[in-house]
Amino acid sequence: MNFLRTDARIPWYGRLALMLLPVLLLGFTYVRKSSELEATDRARLMPTVDKLVDAAKKVALPIPAPDRESERRKELRLERQFLIYKDTVASFKRMGWAAMVILLAVPIGVMMGSYPWAENLGRTVMVILSMIPALALLSILFLTLGTGEVAKVALIVLGVFPVVCLDTYLRAKALPREQFFKAQSLGACELELPWRVVFPQIWPEVLNTIRLNLGVMAVLMIAGESISAEAGIGYRIFIKFYRTTAMNSTIVYVIWLTLLMFLLDAAISQWIKQRYKWLAGQ
């Protein structure tokens, strides 16, 4: 029972097995429950694996062309095939623009944690913004910014930007002030302290904060797309359910989004481990 010890070293195959165990249990429970409901009126709410596979093929694979096809039907067929990839590109474009704006919270947080004037100027505003639920601003954003891409990106930014800024500020504030005095004794000027003393130490941990907020970004993206969009994962989830109550397509999109976010989270986590190996020793 050595693996139960707090200092246990688990081999890679053990870690893989432990990671897959909850997923397999969840999959087994779903398959069993969907099989029980297949012959009832609730079968549509929990489709079988075969129906999920069929739905995945429709949105991910080419649609076969019939022998005779009008130009209009051909346009519709080409528009409907590879839907999941088109929606993924549309959604991640919005998340990408939002992420670029959210990264601006890092230098603001570094300044707030380094200089008292910046702390007094920005802390109260960021605390207030972090207390406002972003979804409560959804209708206000669409009324003021319109129903285009700007409102959807702004919704994601308002939900995550203050949190990242405050986290950066608290991490910068927690650093010993003696480091500033030491750097100044070695010739560093006031303007260099935030970027050559503070930022290199807290950046990996701030990246972890951004990584842990990927789920929040996905939720806000789906909320924005569900109100007004022409493409996107959130748009497709709501349009499929409300127009056709097609749970098979909805579940396929949910699984696809979960997989993408998991891979993105794993990629960022692995990059942090490889790039900042000193962080593991803290």
From TrEMBL:
Location in or out of the cell: Cell membrane
GO BP annotations listed: transmembrane transport
Membrane topology: Multi-pass membrane protein
Record keywords: Cell membrane, Membrane, Transmembrane, Transmembrane helix, Transport
Keyword presence, Flavoprotein: no
Chain ranges of the ABC transmembrane type-1 domain: 91-264
One GO cellular component term noted in the UniProt record for this chain: plasma membrane
Spans traversing the lipid bilayer: 12-31, 96-118, 124-146, 153-172, 250-272
Pfam families tied to this protein: BPD_transp_1
PANTHER family membership: ABC TRANSPORTER PERMEASE PROTEIN MJ0413-RELATED (PTHR30151:SF0), ALKANE SULFONATE ABC TRANSPORTER-RELATED, MEMBRANE SUBUNIT (PTHR30151)
Family as reported in the entry's similarity comment: Belongs to the binding-protein-dependent transport system permease family.
Name of this protein: NitT/TauT family transport system permease protein
Species this chain originates from: Haloferula luteola
